[in-house]
Amino acid sequence: MEEWVDVLDEDGRHTGETILKSEAHRKGVFHPTVHIWFYNTQGEILLQFRSPLKKTFPGFWDVSVAGHVGAGETVEQAALREIREEIGLSLKVQELSPVGIFKSIQRHDNGIVDCEYHHTFLCKLNHKPSSLVIQEEEVTEIRLFHLEVLDKLHLSGDKKVKLVPHDKSYYEAVSDAVRKRLQG
């Protein structure tokens, strides 16, 4: 079933319009997404390996959980829904810690133009990855990586371990937020 998303302007403000997600991607229309980064007390973060069936960045490591905000849905509702769908956890909004909102424009060879505002959150992982139930259409694997590995991957562009590309400032903001949470 085709998803509807809210249209945002260039500055991330709601316009009051909605559009089909596929049309937003075809036309390069801004719309909201959620990114949820799970971390544990050992300084590790949970990454997902994107399914080879994904239209963008198949076979790349990515944020723990991510997805589109449905039309009329709040970012918090979307975050909790995506967490349930992608890794099988039912959480409360109080467990989400906002990191920030990040503008992203990515043009793909298949014609998709992702113009998104990533509403980004942290969440403490209180479960072993092996106990999580992944959504196999979206995610092939999940794995814990030490935060230092994330720092090195996004800076080096290591071709053996492909990480979805984002602005350096995005990854730095996530890393800094996790480190602050770990320090207490």
Gyration radius over CA: 16 Å
Total strands: the figure is 9
Give the strand content: 35-45%
Overall residue-averaged pLDDT value: 93
Largest sheet: 4 strands, mixed
Shape call:
globular
Subunit arrangement of the protein: single chain
| Widest beta sheet: strand line-up | 6-3-8-7
Report on this model:
Helix 3 (147-156) runs antiparallel to helix 4 (168-183). This protein is 25% helix and 35% strand. The chain has a single domain (4-183), classed as Nucleoside Triphosphate Pyrophosphohydrolase (Alpha-Beta Complex), CATH 3.90.79.10. The protein has 184 residues and is α+β, with helices and mostly antiparallel strands. The chain has helices at 21-27, 75-87, 147-156, 168-183; strands at 4-8, 14-20, 31-39, 44-50, 61-62, 65-68, 97-107, 113-124, 139-146. A four-stranded mixed β-sheet has the order 6-3-8-7, with helices on both faces. A three-stranded antiparallel β-sheet has the order 5-4-9. It has a two-stranded antiparallel ribbon with strand order 1-2. It is globular and about 45 Å long. It contains four helices and nine strands, in the order ββαββββαβββαα. The termini are far apart. Strand 1 and strand 2 form a beta hairpin. The model has no long low-confidence stretch (mean pLDDT 93).
